[in-house]
Design goal:
The protein is of the alpha/beta class. Helices cover 29% and strands 21% of the residues. The chain has a seven-stranded parallel beta sheet with strand order 8-9-7-10-11-6-12, sandwiched between helices. α5 crosses α6. The protein is globular and about 90 Å long. It starts with 14 loop residues before the first strand and ends in a 6-residue tail after the last strand. It binds a DNA duplex (12 and 12 nucleotides) through β1, β2 and β3.
Length: 653
DNA sequence: TCAATCCGTATC
DNA sequence: ATACGGATTGAC
């Protein structure tokens, strides 16, 4: 902040390469500034700076110092160094660059996701670090998986093992992940572990506190609040902790000597970043493992198609238990038809009701999984449950209010005289009943048994291992606390499954299985009486996979189907969303790789349309590069209407 | 021929 | 947003 006239450049490396915090595509490159002599000591790579850019003061990061500049014009001085804290290390810059390239986005946008906002007070705070070495973890928990203990040994050994881990039913996954982290730290390297939500983070946190010890890791999540979040981020950045756990954004957390990146339940759609350039945390972590030469671990009860792709490409190996062990640990799974004439009570087919009754009689809790209300706000035939469609345009019918007449969500016509095309029934019912209504109905079906609910508003972490009915929405299933030798639900009932299965989403089957397995994995083994009743057609592939507890089988099938259909992850896709004129303009200036499939347009939001671009995976970077360049041409022209570019978006059709 | 003004473009 | 360069205009 010296006066302009008095400034002179630093004696060595007087040029600062700065990434300005501007998300215009055509400005996505470093700009050169002069370091004034008085800022020489603090203007180190990684610090936040403020610079005059296009007439205004903007924030930025000092990426590097250099002796000279290729810029032909006059260089401006840095306005100031915001803080001497170098928050951005070279590894994170390299990672953010790769992510920006992969997703056709700008470095500035990715850095906004990677570095939490500054909180000056937190920079002064200290962080207590325990002394002493970290012992090796007990690898016994991994013994059920033939590749498990060698995997841990490789981590401790400083190697880079990469694996997709299919957890056994009933597996204490937080403990297993904590052991993998501890093995890595024991071997002298750091670890980053990502989970989908706060509940999973709490579980992992508790396991790490036991296995690795307090003060040797930090948990990062958006829920912390800016000061605490930044304080913990700094502890990681300063190398004070060898492990970071967290949600989505923590995939970018700084970590020295990275030895392991891990993720639990990578199929959860919370891992998709909703802000530009919409990177998926799984991709961030795997890119990171590749760049850092670190190990990688994708774990879950289910298996995503992307994890299957990583396996089939040979990049990672499987960690699975032998079939015999799976059978030994798994509950007995029975599909049952959703036949309204066979209802023991309002919502329960008789088989499900009997399974619940038996479990309760044995003093065990019963888990009932129901889809979230509002998940699919449509209606079905009250008699045969066929989803109701508009007689005019075949759009889905919905109930605008609890008591009103159903109307079409596409054409808006009221469906007054509706008759079911399957059975001729004339009554409609809300397709998905919320957890609370279900709980009330089940309370009447099992008088005298306590009913608990766990849903989005109020998530129960655990429930006692005693007779009770627990109604939960997917992702909010409480874990029954272990009492002596027997833990787990006596019965798990999966209701209203067609709400998941009839979605027109490409991932419907995979997603249904992922949610069912998350619930079913909490049931006791069959030989301790554990039962799962899934109210769905037993011939469907996801139901088959559940019955056999074999998510790898379904993922393999789905992946080969995606290859045939030409959908990610077998190919790379990008969607362009905006007004028809804006999308057309972007496409007209884009120099797409040869052979790019251009599909569409399909209607999007009001006044918007969407185009789909498809290339082989090998041309993915070229496609992203072309789209980024084309976006740059438009942003340089100050094009009015924005076009959203999404590479491999989660929701395709 | 030259200053005043406009417009497009780059932004260090 | 603002600054700059080149083109354009209009007065001498």
């Amino acid at each position: 902040m010296a006066t302009r006239a008095a400034r002179e450049p630093a004696p060595v490396a007087p040029v600062a390469k700065v990434c300005v915090d501007v998300s215009l595509s055509h400005l996505d490159r470093p700009f050169d500034y002069l370091v004034p002599a008085e800022l020489d000591a603090v203007a180190v790579p990684g610090v936040r700076v403020r610079v005059r850019f296009a007439g205004q003061l903007v924030d930025g990061y000092l990426i590097a110092r250099a002796d000279g500049s290729a810029h032909p014009g006059r260089l401006t001085y840095l306005d100031r160094v915001v803080s001497p804290e170098p928050v951005l290390g070279p590894e994170v810059v390299a990672l953010a660059r790769a992510v920006a390239q992969r997703y056709a986005g700008t470095l500035a946008d990715v850095l906004r996701l990677a570095v939490p906002p500054r909180h000056a007070r937190a920079e002064a705070a200290s962080f207590d670090v325990p002394a002493g070495p970290v012992g090796a973890p007990d690898p016994a928990g991994w013994a059920a998986y033939p590749a498990g203990r060698p995997y841990l040994a490789a981590l401790a050994d400083g190697r880079a093992p990469r694996a997709v881990w299919t957890a056994l039913p009933g597996e204490d996954w937080p403990a297993r992940l904590a052991e993998a982290v501890t093995a890595t730290v024991h071997g002298g390297r750091g670890a980053v572990v990502i989970v989908a939500d706060a509940t999973d983070l709490d579980r992992l946190d508790a396991a790490l506190r036991t296995t690795l010890g307090e003060g040797r890791y930090v948990a990062l999540s958006a829920a912390l609040g800016p000061a605490e979040r930044y304080r913990r981020f700094l502890a990681a950045r300063r190398g004070q902790v060898p492990a970071v756990i967290g949600t989505r954004a923590a995939a970018f957390a700084p970590m020295r000597d990275l030895g392991l990146v891990a993720m639990w339940d990578d199929g959860d759609d919370l891992f998709a970043e909703p802000r530009a350039p919409y990177p998926h945390a799984r991709e961030v972590l795997l890119t990171r493992a590749q760049q850092a030469g670190a190990g990688a671990l994708l774990g879950g009860y289910g298996r995503s198609v992307e994890a299957q792709q990583v396996l089939e490409s040979g990049w990672a190996r499987e960690i699975v238990a032998p079939r015999q062990t799976v059978r030994h640990r798994a509950p007995a799974v029975t599909p049952t038809a959703d036949d309204p004439r066979d209802q023991a009570s309002a919502r329960l087919p008789s088989l499900a009701w009997r399974a619940a009754r038996d479990a309760l009689a044995a003093g065990a809790p019963v888990l009932v999984q129901v889809p979230r209300r509002g998940y699919l706000p449509s209606v079905a035939c009250a008699d045969c449950r066929t989803p109701a469609r508009c007689p005019h345009c075949h759009g889905p019918l919905a109930l605008p209010s609890a008591a009103g007449t159903a109307e079409c969500r596409w054409c808006g016509r009221a469906a007054a005289g509706y008759a079911c095309p399957e059975c001729g029934g004339r009554r409609l019912r809300a397709a998905v009943v919320g957890a609370r209504r279900t709980a009330e109905e089940l309370g009447r079906a099992f008088p005298g048994v306590p009913v608990r609910t766990s849903g989005r508003d109020e998530v129960l972490g655990t429930v006692p291992a005693e007779a009770a009915v627990v109604v939960a929405t997917p992702g909010a299933e409480p874990v029954p606390v272990r009492s002596g030798d027997s833990g787990g639900y006596g019965a798990v009932l999966l209701l209203d499954t067609w709400a998941l299965l009839t979605r027109s989403d490409l991932r419907a089957g995979e997603e249904a299985l992922r949610r069912w397995l998350a619930a079913a994995a909490l049931a006791r083994p069959a030989e301790q009486g554990g039962r799962v009743v899934v109210v769905a057609d037993g011939g469907l592939a996801p139901v088959q996979a559940l019955v056999r507890f074999d998510p790898g089988w379904l993922a393999g099938r789905e992946l080969s189907e995606r290859r045939e259909l030409g959908f990610p992850p077998a190919v790379r896709m990008a969607t362009l969303t905006g007004t028809p004129a804006a999308v057309a303009e972007l496409l007209s200036v884009a120099r797409l790789p040869e052979g790019t499939d251009v599909l569409g347009p399909v209607p999007a939001a009001e006044g918007q349309e969407r185009m789909l671009l498809r290339v082989p995976r090998s041309a993915g970077l070229a496609l992203a590069g072309a789209l980024h360049a084309a976006a740059g041409v438009r942003s340089a022209k100050k094009a009015a209407d924005p076009v959203r570019i999404q590479v491999d978006p989660l929701a395709l059709l």
